[in-house]
Amino acid sequence: MFPTPIQQTSRQWQLTYQSLLPVALIVWLAPLIAVMVFSIKPDADFTNGNYWGVPSSFEGFTNYGRVFFDSDMPRYLLNSLLITVPTVIGTIALSCMTGFALGIYKFRGNLLIFFMFIAGNFVPFQILMVPVRDLTLTLNLYDTKTGLVLFHIAFQTGFCTLFMRNFIRALPFPLIEAARVEGVAEWRIFVFVVLPLMKPAIAALAVLVFTFIWNDYFWAIVLTQGPDSQPVTAGITSFNSEFRAAYHLMSAGSIVAALPPVAMFFLMQKHFIAGLTLGAVK
Amino acid sequence: MTNVAPAISTATTDKRGWYARNQIAVTPWLFLAPGILFFAVYVIIPIFQSFNISLYRWDGLGEATYIGLANYQELTTDRAFEISLWNNVKWLALYLLAIPMGLGIALFLNQTVTGIRLYKSLFFFPFVISQVVVGLVFSWFYLPKEGLLNAALGVVGLGPINILGDPTLATYGIIAAGLWPQTAYCMILYLTGLNAVDPEQVEAARLDGAKGHKMLWYVILPQLKPATFIAFVVTIIGALRSFDLISIMTNGGPFGSTRVLSFYMYEKALAEFGFRMGYGAAIAVVLFLIMLFFIAYFLFSMWREERAER
């Protein structure tokens, strides 16, 4: 193990390390802690210039209550959910199939198609912006959740195909050969042999795509406007202009907006990290 | 009884249907079709369409006029484009700091003490938050009067400085905000990599008297190469994709000093009065070509590995 395990070092360094850990963490998360403190302060603290002192009263419930009952925030959150969940389902469905095709079969153009998916995944959003916006307008889907979902499914399929294909490649191939010898139809091999083995990959991609889509901002402002279909990342800017300079409310609002992916991460940590670090180990 | 029949039929001609006979050749294409269709319509074809649109003057609604390379000619004399391009270079160079910083934190946290798992998760935390919230958090952190940064600087007797209001500092302020989640990402890559480092090699090197930075450089880093490659890929892509933070923190200002190509493109095509889709597309093409240079390199490396595996 590198660096040298702390247990094998001097008592002095062990103590230093143990006390250094929390300090480092507080410094690392300082900007975020600041926002959390802001979000429970009363309005009066800001007018009195008490930014960093002890909050004069605990107003957490009032502030977060106003975010939920006094603004469009719940609507934006619901929009985000209605955009994110269908995208996750659609992307997983498409990429399970593409990953299966590219991972199991040998045919001409296999590698070419695979690399097309990878390359498309790296492209800057701006080169797609004008045509995709135009296409969405023609389909009459501008400013709808569906328009956003369709694009997200298409784009995320690139990354997910890379992931799924590599995952399927690592499965034991004799399993499929055995099924073929038994005369099992190819689509049945997919449904009954490969799909059950893909559960961990599906879990990892589901949390990753959830986070990516929930956090998307660019496409939200390009393809939607207004509280009817905008997700929370885009909605937070109008929320902030509504509560201009009311830092306690803006802080509470952004914490609420950030929370769902955070919850997802802590609940599914293992899968999340497995997905992100794909390929980091040989 | 029933087992006898097939033996006879296969001996003469294959009476199974066309699909059954060609299953293995046809199935992959059936499985690929929906994915390829979606990807082509929304990703591959738009790239070519953008190249085409960049040759037109078009407001997105009316008739588009073909103007050849006039948009690109205009770019060469556009001061704002030049600033954006320079800022992209700054982003690229400074964003790469996330890799050594992430490695540093990973080495710091790669211990087995009580609660270390929670520490790792909390250090990784910034990556999970959306860039919009990171942008907000940092713009409040930088506030001249209310911000924590200036409060801290005040204790040491420095400041106050208005980072986002100063044209010479604003871009660096935004990059610092971007480095926060990016470092977290690189950290998690390296933590995973360090987990897989071969303990026998480390022990052998220790017996040979290697330690500290020599051990890191000659024994550990070579084993972390796959992690470094991925960290490099995601950091480069992240740097060139920077948009959210700029849009949230400064909206390109002060005086356009924090624009990058991705933001300038959006501004020209959609945000300013009178949409200039053609000009925006031309900017996007330039950004795409810069990215293509890296994409080609990444794909080449991955292709080489695919070859090695066979």
Structural class of chain A: mainly alpha
| Largest sheet: spatial strand order of chain B | 1-2
> In what range is the share of β-strand residues of chain A?
under 5%
User: Overall 3D geometry of chain A?
Assistant: flat
CATH arch. level architecture of chain B: Orthogonal Bundle
**Major beta sheet summary of chain A:** none
Q: What's the CATH class label of chain B? A: Mainly Alpha
Coarse morphology of chain B:
flat
Report the strand count of chain B: 2
Key structural traits:
heterodimer; A: 282 residues; mainly alpha; MetI-like fold; 2 domains; B: 310 residues; two-stranded antiparallel sheet; 1% strand; flat; disordered N terminus
Task: Describe the model.
- The complex is a heterodimer of chains A (282) and B (310).
- With 282 residues, chain A is mostly helical.
- Chain A has two domains: 6-68, no CATH class; 71-276, MetI-like fold (Orthogonal Bundle), CATH 1.10.3720.10.
- Helices cover 74% and strands 0% of the residues of chain A.
- Chain A has 15 helices and no strands.
- In chain A, helix 5 (73-104) packs antiparallel against helix 13 (232-242).
- The longest helix of chain A is centred in the N-terminal third of the chain and has 32 residues, at 73-104.
- The model of chain A has no long low-confidence stretch (mean pLDDT 91).
- With 310 residues, chain B is mostly helical.
- Chain B has a single domain, classed as MetI-like (MetI-like fold).
- In chain B, 73% of the residues lie in helices and 1% in strands.
- Chain B has 16 helices and two strands.
- Chain B has helices spanning 4-11, 18-21, 23-53, 70-76, 79-95, 98-109, 116-128, 131-141, 148-155, 170-195, 199-207, 212-223, 225-241, 244-249, 261-271, 277-309, and strands spanning 56-57, 65-66.
- A two-stranded antiparallel ribbon of chain B has the order 1-2.
- The model of chain B is unreliable at 1-12 (pLDDT under 50).
- Classes of the chains: A mainly alpha (282), B mainly alpha (310).
- The interface between A and B is large, with 100 and 102 residues.
